[in-house]
Structures are given as structure tokens and as C-alpha cells.
Amino acid sequence: MEEKGIQMEKQHKRNDVAKKFFERGNKGKVEYVLNSNISTYDSSQNIKQCKIVLIADKQVESYRYMYQTRILEELDVRFSSLSTIIKNHEVFDAFHINQNIIGRICCDSEGKLNDESVLLEIPEKRNRLKLSLNKIESYALFSGQIVGVKGTMKNEENCLEINNIFEVPLLPMYKSPFGELVELNVKPLNIVVAAGPFTFDVGFGYEPFNELLIKMEQEKPDLLILLGPFVSEDHPLLIEKNTPKTPGELFKEHVTDKLSKFIKASPGVSIVMVPSTKDLFHCSFVFPQPPFPKSGLPKDVICTSNPAQFRVNEITFVIDNVDILFHLASNEIERNAAPALDRMGRLSRHILIQRHLYPLFPTSPEVNLEYKKSSFLELQNLPDILILPSKLKYFAKIVENVICINPGYLSKGESGGTYAKITIHPLQQTLMEGAFIENLVSKRARVEIVRV
């Protein structure tokens, strides 16, 4: 009787959450707009050409991950590359009284980084120096960050009192061939990005996901980007083993079958799926992560690895589907840093400056990073759009001419979460000069954060 009472109570709670969701008053509310002067798309327009090309050498295939190569060697390869770039960009003179040194930021203990615990690890010498930040007016540092510093040695304390920090210079942005831009330069491109979880913690009704598909069937964007987890390891009922269905059965019933129906009702809408390391249905839980297996999914769905790097027409998208923003926020220390940017913009900038989609070291306990595959986390160019799903508050910001977006989670709270709606207008013919043209997406795209 007691067991039956518990089950009835849980069912009542599921019904109550579903009722509150369907009666929500903020349905479709636009929570934030980036570039509000740019018009949104008209869903009555015909479907446009949407050419999706996965960037070569950045698509992770299945690999063995139950063993780990020497992490230090992999870190040293990356350090060597970035230190050379810094040296070529700045002037260093190691024999001057003002020491110029390149190293990796680390903590003097296993605790959280703080102003008094900052060390600079110098891989070539297998040495660490304590850093004094007292003379630095502005900085933002995290463990694993590669920087150049300038300062004076305090020999009696084996401490470097620094007065300047040199960052890695930014990568260039991708430039499109003239002919490609002219061919695709017809109508606005309409893209929707939604990140899981897609169902509430109390059950597997997938109400927010169902609502999203209904809305997309009405609006018919050119591209729908879906980011896992689709069946999350964090779901309480799966943790408790309190469901008669397997993760595979849940995925088929609530994701595969519904996407098949959506595709039939919305021909011409392209779909990209990016997995999450929290996806129980996926065969790999390490990062970087290979794509979902195509078996069972509709053949029209494009499955990419995690992270994902691809182009939609001329526009470069990079998607980092682990919560790197939250992990950086939990480790970063700063003082008067980047006054033109708020915290979310500054955290996004760390990724762009370090040219890497998980620059934090040591990693968060939530992430199993396979260092021998870390080349798949490196950026080739600055992307036009960087998507960073996070439990932190949704946002859309322009950082170093890159549109950085956290769409939020589709299922969050009893009234549902948010997704991102992107409208990218064609580049004006008057700006097309030369054989290769900068895309200027940040000047011609509108982003809305919308309640499901």
C-alpha cells in the first residue's frame, strides 16, 4: 500500500507539472533581442537554400576511450603552438630585469583559483613561479590559460611580480569565396537552436519538445539545430531506475518517431543533431564525442560530433555542447576585466582567445576529456556564430565580432525554458569586394531568445 501511495503521489506531481506548463502565461515570450534594428523572418516566405557542410578534420569518428595517453604530452603540444604564436606577436627578452615569460596558469593547491594562489607553469623547464597580481589593474585568469607575462623577479620569495599580461592573438575570421556568396545571397536565412534536456524531471512527457516541434511546423525555419541531452543521465527517474523503458526506447518514442512525423509535415526544413556527453542513448560519454548513430533516425537528419563545426551556406557555426561557460565561471578570477563586456561575454572571449573549446585544466569532474583527441577542440578560424549551451542564464552577445549564444535549456522550471531564433540577412552587394569576402554576420543577424 505504501508503494502504491508513493506512485500515486509521483503521478499527481507529473500531472501538476504538465498542467502548469500548458497553462503558462509566457508562451512564446521574447526574453531578449540582439540587434533589434534588424528584422526577424517572415514564416510565410518560401524555404531558402540551406547548404550544410561539415568542416573537414573537425568531425570526430568513433574511437576507443577506455585508456588515456600521457596528458602532459598533449598539453605540451598545445602550449608549444600557442607560445610560439605569442612570441611572434610580442617582444620577449628573458635576460632583461623585466622578465618576459610564457606559461600556463595553475593553482598552488587543489582548491579554487584565487588571487593568492596563482602560479605560472613553464612547461619547458618543468618549473612553476608564484605570480603577484598586485600591480595589475585589470585581469581575468583561469586554470589552464596560456599567457605571456612581464614582470620583475622577487628572488627572495621566488615570486614574479607582474605588471603586464599578454594574450594569444585572435584567429582571423573565415572569408567566403566571392562566387559562393553571390550564389547564396538571395533571402534571409532562418535558424532555430534548442538545447536539452527536452523533458521535465518528473516524467517523460517531453512536453517542451512537443511544443517546440508544433511551433516549428508553423514557422518552418530553414534549419533546426537540436542539442542533447535527449535522454539525460541526470533525469531523477533514470537515476532511481524508476521507469520501465530503456533509454533507447525513450529516445525512439519521444525523439526519433516525433522527428519523423515533423519531417513529413515540414519538408525542406533541415535538421542538425548534436549529442551531449550526458546522453544515455549515446555509445560514448567522453569529450570530444562522435555523432549519434544514424540507425533509427530519419535519413534527412544530419548528425554531427560534439563539438560541432560546420558551415550553413557561407556562415561558420561552432557548437560546444558541454557546459564550459559554467566550468569557467566556477574557476575564473578577475579584477576590472574587459569593461566593455559583462561576465558572459568575458567567459565566451576566453574560448575565442585560447582558440580551444575546452581550455580549462584541470577539467571539471563533469567532463571526461580525451586529450589524445584534443585537436578536434581547436578552432581553425573565429566562427561567425558560437553556441554555448549552459545552465547559466541565456544570452546573445557580440564578442570580437563573433555572435555568442547560450540558448538556455528547453526544459527549465515548471513553465518551460528557452530557445534561440536567428535571422541572418544577405550580405549587401556593395560590401562584396575582392575574391574572398568577410562575412560580417554580426552586423546582419538578429537573435531572439524565446520562451517555448
UniProtKB/TrEMBL annotation:
| Family matches, as Pfam families | DNA_pol_E_B, OB_DPOA2
- What sequence ranges are listed for the domain DNA polymerase alpha subunit B OB? 100-157
GO MF terms, alphabetically ordered: DNA binding
Q: Where in the cell is it found?
A: Nucleus
Principal location listed in the UniProt entry: nucleus
Arranged from A to Z, the UniProt key words for this protein are:
DNA replication, Nucleus
Domain DNA polymerase alpha/delta/epsilon subunit B per the UniProt entry, residue ranges = 191-397
Q: Is the keyword Nucleus in the record? A: yes
Q: What is this protein called?
A: DNA polymerase alpha subunit B
BP GO annotations: DNA replication initiation
Q: Name one GO cellular component term.
A: alpha DNA polymerase:primase complex
The similarity annotation says: Belongs to the DNA polymerase alpha subunit B family.
